[in-house]
Amino acid sequence: DLKVYSVPFSLSEIKGNINISTNKLEEEIIAKAFKAHANGQILEAAKYYERYLGSGFTDAVVFSNYGIILKLLGKIKEAEKFQRKSIEIDSNFARGYYNLANTVKESGNLKEAELLHRKAIELKIDFAESYCNLSTILYELGKLKDAEFFINKSIQYNPLHGKSYSNRGIILAELGKLKEAELSHYKAIELSPRLADLHYNLANILYQLKKLK
Asked: Among 30, 111, 116, which residue's Cα sits nearest to residue 66?
């Protein structure tokens, strides 16, 4: 299976995209939310996000991030609601469209997920993660040439992401380009040697090549 990007973010990126309240207490709450989120402390982050939003603040990044937390907790419909609110607050928030796209895909709505990723890319031309996840959606929709185009764009903007090369290898194999697929899988393993699924994907290609001999 093709792998999608998870929802990556850095604390510095989030801080750079949010207008934190001048209220000292609220500033401390959101700082704690960001720190817990970045450290993978999901329930702790949820508690602080809820406290912040409960104070009446309407920042697109916070709504989107809280949606990520809800998605991780399996609350897909609630996650979608908060992420839609995020792009309602800021219609130019590329990562908001990206996060919503990942959530609606989880609900099985591939066509809307495709449109949302395209909007994210329109707003942020070098959005490697969105190119990668859009490629996965197009692959699932059977649009292999389009999937190949967008995975190549993902690699163009982030040439060090091993799973993108693995995804490209899977797409190339479906297109019958087995030798190119092999090279792409080798590159994936070179970049991410500890990921077992990448080795499995390479082994599958090597098996297909052997059958052709």
From this structure: 30
**Torsion-angle region of residue 82: left (phi > 0), alpha (psi -120 to 50) or beta?**
alpha
Q: Give the ranges where the chain is alpha helix by DSSP (H).
A: 11-16, 24-38, 42-54, 60-72, 76-89, 94-106, 110-123, 128-140, 144-157, 162-174, 178-191, 196-212
The helix-helix angle for 24-38 and 42-54 (nearest 10°) equals 150
One pLDDT digit (tens) per residue for the chain, 213 residues = 665 555 444 444 444 444 444 466 677 787 888 888 888 888 888 888 888 888 777 788 889 989 999 998 999 999 999 999 999 999 999 999 999 999 999 999 999 999 999 999 999 999 999 999 999 999 999 999 999 999 999 999 999 999 999 999 999 999 999 999 999 999 999 999 998 888 988 998 998 888 886
Taking CA 104 as the corner, what is the angle to CA 99 and CA 106, rounded to the nearest 5 degrees?
A: 100
- Helix axes 94-106 and 76-89, enclosed angle (nearest 10): 160
The DSSP output letter for 5 is P
